[in-house]
Structures are given as structure tokens and as C-alpha cells.
Design a protein that fits this description.
Elements: H1 28-33, H2 37-46, H3 58-65, H4 68-75, H5 80-92, H6 105-112, H7 124-134, E1 138-141, E2 144-147, H8 151-154, H9 165-170, H10 174-184, H11 193-201, H12 204-212, H13 216-226, E3 231-233, H14 249-255, E4 260-261, E5 266-268, H15 271-277, E6 295-297, H16 300-327, E7 330-331, H17 340-350, H18 354-366, E8 370-372, E9 379-382, H19 384-390, H20 394-407, H21 437-449, E10 455-457, H22 459-469, H23 476-492, E11 495-496, E12 499-500, H24 504-508, H25 512-522, E13 531-532, E14 537-540, H26 546-555, E15 557-560, E16 565-568, H27 571-579, H28 584-594, H29 601-613, E17 618-620, E18 624-627, H30 631-639, E19 649-652, E20 655-658, H31 662-671, E21 677-678, H32 708-728, E22 732-733, H33 744-759, E23 763-768, E24 774-785, E25 788-793, E26 798-803, E27 807-812
Parallel strand pairs: 17-21
Antiparallel strand pairs: 1-2, 3-5, 4-5, 6-10, 7-9, 8-9, 11-12, 13-14, 14-16, 15-16, 17-18, 18-20, 19-20, 22-27, 23-24, 23-27, 24-25, 25-26
Length: 818
């Protein structure tokens, strides 16, 4: 009998297999089928990989739930106590160990050395077993617990115990087992020598008698193997030994079946003997709780404010860089990454170090804010998603970045390292992917969340707790990824001072609304004013509202950032605003409206002077020409020795031709301190900001909503129940002709379906879908027309049309579900 045994889908009444009173032995599938919808929804919520895609019925779910890889994934999520309990079930519930199969809770408590709590709700063993049942790693069989079959392969040495005696003896030559049975149980009535010896050693009292017969050296050898590993090495392990010929300690143990050869030079201690030597205990120590934290306490408000400040720094840095990349994109390397020089420039633009800049860029890419364009040479550009992201409140912008980092499998800390081939890994390029990174981040932050608010644990205590919480994940790579996760979380504003921030706690529970509420209270409030000073600067004492920030970035250059941002007004910055279509009045009105201080006279003169000279000269294409309504300006320009390389020729009092292109002419005159603007053929000025380019996002994170996983779980359970009914419900096949003229089978199908539609009866159909798969459907026909059946598909919970030629079988059903 296998754990994932499924009923024959054509067997009438197969849905009752293993049900109480049915007389059939229970199976894992029948236990799953008997679980409530809420319990099945809890199972698929805890193990979402089981419904990707949704199984066709409960039997398929049982098969998937007992397959190697899904079980390996859920084993990695067990803590040390849960793993010890599971190993105890595997060790004591092995059907090769004894009859009856399985283990009781009382036997488990005794083997683990646990005393049941007075309050069952507080009993740690019961809670651990409930978790294992919820995860479908164990299942009840007539009052006893059994592990799923695949665990015998995945946990071959539970509690460091060797295999049971029966499979060890079955692997030996028959003559060897026969001689052992004749020496130990000569009067046995068992059917086979293997059963004779296994029955003898399954009794702890008989094992004790045999152990007492060996000498001190042999007993020391047994004790050295008792707590594992259960294997030892010796020369000629398969030697022929009997009680009469045994002379050495090893031979004494072999002759009594206390050790069994499993190789030419390998001996194994059977599980039954080890359990006796351990006095029935499975572990030297059972740890029911993680080790305590060690560290320091910080005020919770200090932690949250520090983290919120870092979150604001992240937002401001990315906006500054991506606005710059909108006009001057960074090049894409041949391997798809970002070059060292471009990374250095990005770090300077974001006012941070290169490693942090790499983290910010990788996070922006994971959030879908930057991508490569479709040009041959390739450039890194902000995406259209960036424009939408920039308009959202700061807390929601940060939440999108934080969620993207949590779910990303790219590790920015690997930037600059070398791969196995000696090639340098570049940020945004290949080689930074680590599939275990998301889980390491969730584990580290979730464990920080178990500490009191504001408590910053030491690295050692956090590592010790993670080793208890996820014992099967421990490795050098996992430890490295946890270290990276903690450093990156601090740089992104998820932690502050080594403690988890309050806005991160609800984020880890998928409650983004609560996280946004907490963070919004700590984030700086955007300001709608600046302080214009007499030294041609304006100070923004905090973050500015989006519209003001854009206009100010157009009129002035950012000189410094920090707690406050300093903008400097220059001729070039004012000209940039004029080139973008702003007028002198627009600039002064904006500054007067948003400045808390009077506008300095020097700044007014600067704007007026640049505006007065702006556009006096107009460049066209001759190769190019200059046109000006003031002949004295052109006279001054032609007489200027610095313009000799432009090939200027006076054509008229107000027109000068040039020997260079219009773009070169405009650029050169600007370098000389003039302020020409291009004009079109009709003489109008052409004013425009530099082209703002966007790339299409490649990986945009899907929005998450509270309760979405629960709704999907219930929908998956409903679909599996419907599929289970279709595969197990009792049915009476409708005979269809196998031979006959073309179309006779389809005609018979249509006739049977038409009759069912008129009588209002449900039918079962075997159907070949568009992918060529054979599926079962329960349908309530409503009409048959044009070779198609239209009816309510109970399996899909929707009205569907079925092509008659794809229907392979029909069966009549009862009017109500079985």
C-alpha cells in the first residue's frame, strides 16, 4: 500500500475508499479527501506550490503532496523542534519496524522525553503535530500517526538511527540469515528466517538479554554507535560468523544480530538495537524553543525614525538619478550590465557609495522602474512605470521598492566579485542571481520581528536563532545571504540601528495598508516653499512637492543635499528654463510665490539680464545663419576675434551667415556668452526641453492585496472538489458504437446529450481538451446545437461549450452529487 494510492476513476463509489465503515484500509488520499474545505485551504495556503497548477482532483493533490521536491520545500520551513517531532514519527512509525503501523502521541512523548502539559492547548507536542498534519507530512491511520512515504527517502537516518532490522536482514544472503535464526531462535514458528530474527529483536527485553551477553569491549563499540552515525568500518564485514565461532567483539555482535553488515567493510547498528541503547529516547536534547536573543535595546521611535529617514534618502537618490538618466542615459554593456564608470557617476549623482548605488539600481530594476531600450547599442532608461510611481505618495513609492527587493533573487552585494570563470560581475548584469536570496531575506527580517520593538540583536544570537528556526537551510551560502540581507535592509530603510522598523512588520505580513500608515507618519512632509538667499541660492529645508521640485530643478542646479537641499541659480540654469519655454515673469512669479524670504535684487537682475539677451540672436540653416533685430549686436559678433572659426559673413544689417551647422553655431555662441535660440523656417523660435525618453518595463511586480491568497486557496479547493466528484462519482456508462459509418459515434453522442438536456439530468463526459489531455467533466446540458454541447460545467463552475467530436465517453449520473 502506498501513501498516494488513488481510487480508480472508473470505479463506482470510489470516493468512499478508506471511509469509516467501508472495510477498506485507509490511505493518504482518502484522508485528504475526508478533510474539510477549510483544512484543505489551509494546506494549499501553507504549501502554495501544490496548486501551481491546480490539481484536477484530490488524488492528484495527494500525489503532488507526497512528491520529493514539494516535500523537500516544506521540510526547509520546519524549525528544529518540528523537525525532531517529524523525525520521531518517521523513526517510530516506519511500517518495517513493527505492527501495528504508525505511532501514538503517547509513544512520541515518551521517545522525546516530553511531559504532556496540563492544558492541551499549551502542549508543545500537540501543536507541533497539528502543524505537521496541516502541512500533510503525517496523517492518522486508525488512531496512529504515519509519515508520508517519501520521507523514508528524504530522512534516511531520522534521529541519527540506522534502518530497521527487516530490510537489513533481507539484503543478506539467505544462508547467513538462516544461520542467525538457528542460533538465536531455533524454535521459531515464523514463516521466514528474516521474520524470526526481526520479531526477536523487536522486543526490547530480548535485545537487553543479548546485549548483556557481550563483553565490555563489544558494549563500548555499541555505545559509540548508539547516538549516531549508525555505521562503522571493519575489514571483511561479511565474514561467516556463528555463536560458536565468534571470537572478537565485532564477531560477538554480528553473531547476535546486534550489528548487521551492509557492505564489504561496513557495519550498521539496527534501529531497534539503537533505541534500546538510548533507553527509548530519540535525541540527547530536545529543544522546544529558540535560544534567547542577545543585544541592546533602542527606543522604538528612534528606530522607526532612522529607518524612515533612510527610506526618504532612497527615494530622493533614485529620483535624482532617474531624472538625469531621462536626458543622459547610461550605456548597456555587452553582457547586459552597467559599466564601472557609469556606476561611479550614478553614485555621485545619488550622493552615496558605489555599493549602495548598486543596491539602489538593482532595487529600481526589480520594481520595474528602469530597463534597457530597444536600440542596438542599448541604454538604461527610466520606464513608463517610473512616471506613475513618481506621482504616488512617498510611503507607497517606498513600499513598492521594499516589496520588489524582498521578492527579488538578485544580490547587489555580489557586484564587483568574480564568477567561476574569472569574469567580473557587473551591477544589472548576469551573475547576481541567487534563488535562495528571497527566502534568506524573509527569514532574517521575520526573526528580527520576533524581538521586542526597538531591540537590536547581535549577529551571533540572530544566527543561532536562525539555525534553530531553519535547520535544513543552514549552509555557508545561506549565512552569506543573511549577512547581505541585513546590510541591504538597513540601506533600504527596513531596519534602523540593527532593529526592525515598525513599518516593516506589517509589510512582512502582506498588510501594505498598515505599513503605509505607519511610514507616512514618520516620512518628512513635502514642502511647498523654499528660502531664497542673497548669494544666488535657494534652500529647501525638506522634500518639496513634486511640481515645485521639478520647476526648481529646471531653474537652478542642485549644489548640495542632506537634511536640506541647496539650489544655485546661474546663467546656464536660467537659460535652461528659458529654453524650456519659461518667461522672465514665469520665473520671478514662481520664486516670489514659493519663497518665504524676499527675492534678492541680484537674482532679479540675473533673470532679467539673461532673459533680455535670450533669443536676441536666432540661428537658422544656411549652412546656418544668425538673425538679429539689433544690427549693433551682429556688428559686435562679426568683429569678435573669437568667432573667427565660425566663418561669419555679413549678409544684411540684421543677417549674418555662418559656415558651420546650426547646432554647432548655437553651441559655440553659448560658450562665448551669447544666448542664441534656434528658429524654424517661418522665423518662429523653437524652444523645447531635452528629449525625455522611456523604456518599456520588463518585470513589474504584481500588486498584492490582503486576503488574495485565501481567496485563491478556497477557489483551488472548490476546483479540486469538483474534479474529485467527476473522477469518483458513481456512473452508468452510455454505450457508444465503436464501429460503423463515419459520424455514427458523434451522432450517438449528440442523441444522448439531447435526451439528457430534455430530461434535465446531469451527465459525466470524458473530454479531450485543446491541449490533447483527457479530462473528466460533470455537465448539466442546456442545449445541443451545431455539433456543440452547451451546459453548466460543475467542474469549472461556469457555462461552457463542448465540441461533440471531442467527447470520448458519456455516463449517466444521479441528480444530486454522491
Amino acid at each position: 500500500m502506498t501513501d498516494n494510492a488513488q481510487p480508480d476513476e472508473h470505479e463506482p463509489g470510489a470516493g468512499s475508499r478508506g471511509a469509516p465503515g467501508s472495510g477498506r484500509p485507509p490511505t493518504f488520499t482518502s484522508w485528504l479527501r475526508g478533510r474539510s474545505d477549510d483544512e484543505l485551504a489551509a494546506l494549499v495556503s501553507a504549501r502554495p506550490d501544490l496548486v501551481q497548477p491546480v490539481p484536477v482532483d484530490i488524488g492528484a493533490l495527494a500525489t503532488r503532496a507526497t512528491t520529493r521536491n514539494p516535500v523537500l520545500r516544506v521540510l526547509e520551513r520546519l524549525d528544529r523542534f518540528g523537525l525532531q517531532v517529524l523525525e520521531a514519527v518517521v523513526a517510530l512509525g516506519d511500517d518495517r519496524l513493527s505492527e501495528p503501523v504508525g505511532v501514538t502521541t503517547a509513544e512520541l512523548a515518551a521517545a522525546l522525553g516530553l511531559t504532556p502539559a496540563a492544558d492541551p492547548a499549551e502542549d508543545l507536542l500537540s501543536r507541533a503535530l497539528d502543524d505537521l498534519l496541516r502541512l500533510a507530512l503525517v496523517w492518522p491511520d486508525r488512531g496512529r500517526l504515519r509519515p508520508v512515504q517519501v520521507l523514508r527517502e528524504l530522512l534516511p537516518r531520522p534521529a541519527q538511527l540506522g534502518p530497521p532490522l527487516r530490510p537489513l536482514l533481507a539484503a543478506l544472503p539467505h544462508s547467513t540469515v538462516r544461520r542467525l535464526a538457528d542460533d538465536l531462535v531455533p524454535d521459531s514458528t515464523a514463516a521466514t528466517p528474516v521474520e524470526s530474527v526481526a520479531t526477536l529483536l523487536s522486543d526490547p527485553a530480548r535485545v537487553g538479554t543479548l546485549v548483556d551477553q557481550v563483553g565490555a569491549p563489544a558494549r563500548r563499540l555499541l555505545d559509540s554507535l548508539a547516538w549516531g552515525p549508525p555505521h562503522g568500518t571493519v575489514t571483511d564485514a561479511r565474514r561467516e560468523i556463528s555463536l560458536a565461532t565468534a571470537s572478537s567483539p565485532v564477531e560477538t555482535l554480528l553473531a547476535r544480530g546486534l550489528l548487521v553488515p551492509t557492505g564489504d567493510d561496513t557495519l550498521t547498528l539496527p534501529r531497534e538495537v539503537a533505541l534500546y541503547l538510548r533507553s527509548g529516547l530519540l535525541f540527547r536534547e530536545v529543544t522546544t524553543a529558540p535560544p534567547p536573543f542577545g543585544g541592546r535595546e533602542n527606543p522604538g521611535t528612534t528606530v522607526t525614525r532612522a529607518a524612515a529617514g533612510q527610506a526618504f534618502t532612497l527615494l530622493r537618490a533614485l529620483e535624482e538619478l532617474l531624472e538625469r538618466w531621462s536626458e543622459e542615459p547610461a550605456a548597456v554593456l555587452r553582457n547586459g550590465g552597467l559599466g564601472v564608470r557609469d556606476l561611479r557617476r550614478a553614485a555621485q549623482a545619488m550622493d552615496t557609495d558605489e555599493q549602495t548605488a548598486a543596491l539602489y539600481l538593482e532595487t529600481a530594476r526589480s520594481a520595474g522602474l528602469i530597463a534597457t531600450d530597444d536600440r542596438v547599442e542599448g541604454e538604461w532608461l527610466p520606464t513608463r512605470e517610473y512616471d506613475l510611481w513618481r506621482e504616488r505618495p512617498p510611503e507607497w513609492r517606498w513600499l513598492r521598492l521594499a516589496r520588489a527587493w524582498l521578492e527579488s533573487d538578485r544580490v547587489a552585494a555580489l557586484n564587483g566579485s568574480r564568477d567561476s570563470g574569472g569574469r567580473v560581475r557587473n551591477v544589472l548584469g548576469p551573475g547576481l542571481v541567487r534563488p535562495a536570496a528571497p527566502q534568506a531575506r524573509h527569514d532574517a527580517l521575520a526573526e528580527l520581528g520576533t524581538a521586542p520593538p526597538g531591540f537590536a540583536p547581535t549577529e551571533e544570537s540572530l544566527a543561532a536563532r536562525l539555525a534553530w528556526r531553519r535547520p535544513r537551510r543552514q549552509s555557508a551560502l545561506y549565512t552569506e545571504l543573511v549577512g547581505y540581507a541585513l546590510a541591504e535592509a538597513a540601506a533600504l530603510g527596513l531596519t534602523g540601528g540593527g532593529a526592525l522598523a515598525e513599518h516593516t512588520r506589517p509589510l512582512l505580513e502582506d498588510d501594505e495598508e498598515a505599513a503605509a500608515r505607519v511610514l507616512s507618519a514618520e516620512m518628512p512632509t513635502p514642502l511647498d516653499y523654499v528660502l531664497v538667499q542673497g548669494d544666488m541660492t535657494a534652500v529647501a529645508p525638506g522634500p518639496l512637492v513634486t511640481g515645485l521640485a521639478r520647476e526648481l530643478a529646471l531653474i537652478a542646479d542642485v549644489e548640495s543635499t542632506g537634511g536640506a537641499t541647496v539650489y544655485r541659480f546661474t546663467e546656464e540654469s536660467v537659460r535652461r528654463a528659458l529654453d524650456a519655454g519659461r518667461g522672465i515673469a514665469d520665473i520671478t512669479d514662481l520664486l516670489e510665490r514659493h519663497s518665504r524670504t524676499p527675492l534678492p535684487q541680484a537674482l532679479r537682475y540675473l533673470v532679467s539680464d539673461v532673459g533680455r539677451r535670450h533669443g536676441r540672436l536666432r540661428a537658422g540653416t544656411a549652412s546656418s545663419y544668425l538673425r538679429c533685430d539689433e544690427p549693433s549686436v551682429l556688428e559686435e559678433l562679426v568683429s569678435d576675434r573669437r568667432t573667427g572659426d565660425l566663418g561669419l559673413v555679413r549678409l544684411a544689417p540684421t543677417v549674418v551667415a555662418a559656415g558651420v551647422s546650426r547646432a554647432a553655431l548655437v553651441e559655440r555662441l553659448r560658450q562665448l556668452g551669447y544666448h542664441p535660440v534656434p528658429e524654424s523656417g517661418d522665423g518662429s523660435m523653437r524652444l523645447s526641453r531635452p528629449e525625455v525618453r522611456r523604456a518599456e518595463p520588463t518585470d513589474v511586480p504584481a500588486p498584492s492585496g490582503p486576503g488574495a491568497s485565501g481567496e485563491l486557496s478556497r477557489a483551488a479547493v472548490k476546483a479540486m472538489r469538483a474534479g474529485d466528484e467527476a473522477s469518483t462519482i458513481a456512473r452508468r456508462p452510455v454505450p457508444l458504437p465503436e464501429d460503423g459509418p463515419p459520424g455514427s459515434r458523434t451522432a450517438a453522442v449528440l442523441e444522448a446529450l439531447t435526451r439528457a438536456a430534455k430530461e434535465g439530468r446531469r451527465v459525466w463526459i470524458g473530454y479531450t481538451d485543446t491541449d490533447g489531455r483527457q479530462v473528466s467533466r460533470i455537465v448539466e446540458p442546456s442545449g445541443v446545437d451545431g455539433g456543440f454541447l452547451t451546459g453548466y460545467d460543475a467542474t469549472r463552475d461556469a457555462v461552457h461549450r463542448f465540441a461533440a467530436h471531442r467527447i470520448s465517453a458519456i455516463a449517466e449520473l444521479e441528480n444530486t452529487p454522491d
